[in-house]
Amino acid sequence: MASQPSPYTISVPDTALDKLKRKLSDADYPDELDTPDQWPYGSPLTDIKRLAKYWETSFDWRGAETKLNELPNYRKKVAVDGFGDIDVHFVWKRSSNPDAIPLLFCHGWPGSFIEVTKLLPLLEAGSAAGKPAFHVVAPSLPNFGFSQRITAPGFALSQYAETCHRLMLDLGYSKYATQGGDWGFYITRTMGILYPSHVIASHINMVRANPPSFTSHPALALQHAITPYTPAESAGLKRSDWFLNHGQAYRQLQATKPQTLSYAFADSPVALLAWIYEKLVDWTDGYAWTDDEVLTWISIYWFSTAGPNAHVRIYYEAGHNPTEKIPGRERASEWVDGVKLGLAHFPRELSVVPRIWGRTLGK
Question: How far is Cα of residue 92 from the mean position of the Cα atoms in its chain?
Answer without folding.
Answer: 17
